[in-house]
Write a sequence for this structure.
């Protein structure tokens, strides 16, 4: 039976564990998660193990990044099975604080990111989101003091926001973005995929297929806006309610009009049934 990782729930216990790692001269990688772990999360843990001596996985469903109408109450919470999965791949430590530990009575400080956080993508539809993400990630970075922080590229705007925040605040760590892990048919792995009905799951790969087709056409020199308009139509025809399909500068997330404008990232968000899916792809 795989050795169960140490699970801590208080700041005192976390700091004691981190101090022991540092005393031994170990480097530390952090994998921030909201639990309901899937192969994508585990790939981040393995990537962290390749870079650092110890891997800490945080599991915290962060209430400040959910709006009142979103799925905070129903978001899957599977700590027991998450810890078992982490034991199988030999993660070292699970940091699983409660909301009262993360946001104790009287908590009154927020991080308000700008730049990529105001790109008119996720922020347009979830204006509360990146303030909640930046605040909780800043706390996690301060609590764990990692050398590396591992994030998936599926949440691409989030990756850009967190990378900028770490740079702007001179935090002594490297944010590492890892490629999106996908199902065989291309669907990006997400904890929210469990919400999809069988019919919706069949339609879901339309997003990645549209991204791939659009990237190929843009690289071939077709006009970006024409390609995007046709891609939007395909997604809508597949019974999605489209939030956006956009081409943006891969670093700043500024709008781009031509291939020569710099490295381009295509980003999409759409809802099918009650499930909102996001994805992205480099051009």
């Amino acid at each position: 039976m795989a050795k169960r990782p140490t699970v801590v729930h208080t700041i005192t216990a976390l700091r004691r564990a981190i101090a022991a790692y540092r005393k031994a001269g170990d480097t530390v990688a952090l994998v921030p998660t909201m639990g309901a772990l899937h192969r994508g999360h585990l790939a981040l843990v393995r990537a962290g193990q390749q870079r650092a001596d110890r891997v800490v996985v945080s599991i915290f469903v962060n209430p400040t990044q959910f709006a009142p109408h979103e799925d905070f109450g129903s978001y899957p919470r599977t700590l027991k099975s998450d810890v078992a999965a982490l034991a199988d791949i030999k993660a070292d430590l699970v940091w699983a604080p409660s909301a009262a530990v993360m946001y104790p009575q009287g908590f009154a400080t927020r991080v308000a990111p700008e730049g990529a956080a105001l790109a008119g993508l996720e922020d347009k539809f979830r204006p509360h989101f990146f303030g909640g993400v930046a605040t909780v990630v800043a706390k996690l970075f301060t609590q764990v003091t990692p050398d590396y922080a591992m994030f998936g590229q599926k949440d691409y705007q989030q990756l850009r926001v967190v990378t900028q925040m770490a740079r702007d605040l001179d935090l002594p760590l490297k944010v590492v973005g890892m490629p999106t892990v996908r199902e065989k048919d291309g669907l990006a792995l997400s904890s929210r995929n469990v919400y999809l009905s069988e019919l919706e799951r069949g339609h879901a790969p339309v997003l990645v297929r549209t991204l791939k087709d659009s990237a190929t056409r843009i690289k071939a020199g077709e006009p970006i806006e024409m390609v995007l308009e046709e891609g939007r139509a395909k997604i809508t025809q597949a019974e999605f309610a489209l939030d956006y399909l956009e081409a943006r500068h891969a670093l700043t997330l500024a709008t781009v009009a031509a291939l020569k404008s710099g490295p381009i990232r295509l980003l999409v968000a759409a809802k099918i049934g009650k499930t909102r899916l996001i994805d992205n792809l480099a051009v």
